[in-house]
Amino acid sequence: MSATALRVGICGFFIECNRWSPVSTAAMFAAALDLAGADLQAQLAAQPPRTLPDTAGFVAQMDQLGPWEPVALRMAAAQPGGPVEHAYFVDLVNDIEARLRAALPLDAVFISSHGAALTTQNDDPDGELFARIRAVVGPAVAIVAVLDLHTNVSRRMTDALSAFVAYRCNPHTDLFERGQEAALHLHSLLAQGPGVVELVKLPLVPPATSQLVAPGTAYAELIEIGQRRVGGAILNVSLCGGFALADCDKCGFAVVVTARAGERSLAAARALELATVVWNWRERFVSILTPLDRAVQAAVAGPGARPLILADVADNPGAGGGGNTVALLQALLRSGAQGVLLGVFTDAALAREAHALGVDANFEARFNRDSRDDRFAPAFTHGARVLALADGLFVGRRGMVKGSQQDMGLSALLDLGGVRVAVISKRQQLLDPAQLEVLGVDLQTVRTLVVKSRGHFRAAFDEFAPPERILEVDCPGLTTPNLKTLPWTRMPRPIFPIDEHATWSP
């Protein structure tokens, strides 16, 4: 540990990869976040920064703990999608390694990571990055990482880290706090030596819809049990449900325990104890979806019906979906449903056409004219009127993106006759009412809200509809939680609930 200000390297690689989604390119990272050196350094001090909130929380807490010098390396993030172009990842990790070597000596390294990345040639790029960093700094330097609770954890990842901190909320509203926690652990490790991280993996892949952390859910209760084990030599307990749609041999529920130096046996015992509880509760992670026809029936209920949310969970851009499947939309149109708003539908060509025509224009709206996915997002045409237009810039006001500047690209609100559709250009899930309000939507006029999202919308639209009025609809799509329907190629088998006979013993 330095006698003067601490020097801490800052880097990150953040993406959640769906095996069956289109390849994630360098351009996608450039459009979202890919900063290095002075450019990243400036963002570490910006208000608000372009980095994820975990990094902002880490920096804020470090500022309070005493003199330190953040050493910006490189940080890249992109919207969830398919495996990353391998050449881009190779260039990225080589660049981070070179910048790290040039920055030595460092007292510690902070990593912002999702933990469920893939590349077109590597199923554990997170482990590759962590191991490369450890090889450069050596065994005595503390490396602390903050990860999504949907991370697919490998032993290569945990072996490289001194402390492992995963989110505890889903929807993910605690990134800032987890960054703060990472800073506190870092100071503890600097005083007492790099910690130890123990991992137990289970043959269990909970569908994303069963990983909600809310009162009464299995996940919330398990996380509370884990937090009761934190204290003394145990610094952190992370319960990571993982991301099944990565379809890789890292998939499986992970129990990760961080302890002080010299307490590996205690960390291992705690991890095994908690893994046993998770396995015994595995049946509580079975997800039940609402059939499409029943969801449509609920949407066409009488005028006195309370507001309803239909979650198109199989087309969640937050898990690699295109945000443009049409099964639910077409079923609602056929039913004659009224008072329906669908948000948000990704179709840049349609948004541009609406802008060219202008507000109040009537036209034949051709959805998905540029789509390459005829299975889930075929082209179709429907009469429409342009209700509103916007540049797509908004500031989040509730939930995950509260207070941050966001961009949907050119956007348009179309009326298809009882069903309104908010069309955007930059693929993303519906996370905040502001995404609709920039198009002039008053949610008081909406009876049924259709969301292209798996669950993060819940943190922002809880005032619109209570949990019992949210239906997760069983539609076709790249992000379906109906795991038994998917063409697995690399998933470790047998694994529950895909294989109901799967077994595990501590």
Number of domains: 2
Q: What is the highest CATH level, the class of the largest domain?
A: Alpha Beta
Largest sheet: 9 strands, mixed
- Spatial order of the strands forming the largest sheet: 10-20-11-19-12-18-17-14-13
Overall pLDDT, averaged? 95
How much of the residues is beta strand, in percent?
15-25%
Report how far apart the termini are. Answer: 39 Å
Q: Predict the CATH topology of the largest domain.
A: Rossmann fold
Q: Residue ranges: pLDDT <50 for 5 or more in a row? A: none
Count the DSSP helices.
13
Strand tally is 20
How would you sum up the global shape?
globular
CATH H-level superfamily of the largest domain: Response regulator
Q: What would CATH call the architecture of the largest domain?
A: 3-Layer(aba) Sandwich
Q: Output the radius of gyration.
A: 23 Å
- Helical fraction equals 25-40%
Helix/strand class: alpha/beta
